[in-house]
């Protein structure tokens, strides 16, 4: 049994992968809690897709350099999140329509850029579905620094972000910088998506943002515990998912997401059973 | 304008500051898309006064409130608070309509009341003993202390309304705006709200409440503001609720029955937006 757990750890790529999965899980679950509470799931999904042209640009211009990819992705993500915010505010469009336009256009641009390279399909797969086992020391450092900054911001602005999400009218009457906080939240989501893109890829990003937070929301009815629970469960799912990936030979990103989904279904069934028992 | 007066006549300005109305609106218009939701509204509220705002749907009650709390910018005219152009931060409390609140949000009663302290606690800081004491006081005043740990969706409509009143109290607001606080509440819950409003009087909180029921407006408030895009009438219930004013405000949507005491039994028969 012990050997079952320790055997994968002899590989440095597994050690780095586990560390990355845990950090990404915590950061995404914390940011994702706000995504869930504010009904921004579509925004989160769109944002992860709009990064693709940024990654493609870094890939075409700087080759395989991970650091360059990261910065290109970060700039693209922050620009698209602010752009979506500005378009839905300024133009006479519904917010989801504005998101849809930016989402599809940017994603297509990314695919077009990557398709100019010969090893197109292999590279695209990597970006779409992630490769947590390919995480390097530089990646870990970037996840640690930016993930840490996100957590610090959420902790420092805990009561402001709670108030903004629950009742933006009160936030306005109390003269909080509502607009700035709204944009800050968009930037936090953008940064969380960028640090996680390596682990789960563009396509599965949404699950890491939304699923652990959704599971936590079934278990607690207070924000603080919900953030902690979501973070803990996401970290645990990252570890379990990687072991499943190792032993069953399943793609790592998919294994992590499926573990999150399984935990959600279990929790949901549990709360449903408890609910029906309480009624009878 | 106030500044100009202060330059010309400092003694007058000083006197005005003492007796300045808690809220003064001068010739205010509020635009919405193409048209005007409110046009040329002027009024002044005394400190500690409790005023009902009535009028048909679309009369501009919500626009009036949004302009006062600063969510809408008036297209013309001005608003002043105790003589100043801007209310002090946290001075204005807004109790939203219950339909506007996300009741599933993971917060309990005490959390919501503590939100009223957010501005006074300050950025990056945690609430201290003083804030917790004020929250406890506010919960006590609205008789919600036993339910402080309840998640807010597990409350009755009247209890939910009292939580938001407690939040306004914890905020130490001097002007309280309530948008349709009685809608959907049974008579007992409505009475509890009025009881709490009576308890606010010693605190000199000025209250402005939008409501549909003209009888409640007449019975429980110091003055009544009758609104239909224009301010039709503002004064005591007896002055405001005359057949001419009511026809002006409601047109055909109101049944008027003039009784021998000269009081009108009236019912707003319009659809209702809830």
Beta-strand percentage range of chain A: under 5%
Q: Determine the most extensive contact between two protein chains.
A: A-B, 24 and 31 residues
Question: Order of SSEs of chain A, N→C?
Answer: HHHHHHHHHHHHH
The SS-based structural class of chain B is alpha/beta
Helical fraction of chain B equals 25-40%
Order of helices and strands of chain B: HHEEEHEEHHHHEHEHEEHHEE
Instruction: Assign the structural class of chain A, choosing from mainly alpha, mainly beta, alpha/beta, alpha+beta, or little secondary structure.
Output: mainly alpha
- The average pLDDT score of chain B comes to 86
Largest sheet of chain A: none
Structural Rg of chain A: 19 Å
Q: Which assembly state applies to the chains in this document?
A: heterodimer
CATH architectural arrangement of one domain in chain A: Orthogonal Bundle
By DSSP (H or I, 4+ residues per run), the number of helices of chain B equals 11
Distance between the termini of chain A: 42 Å
Low-confidence stretches of chain B: 1-10, 270-274
- Main sheet of chain B? 6 strands, mixed
Tally of DSSP helical segments of chain A? 13
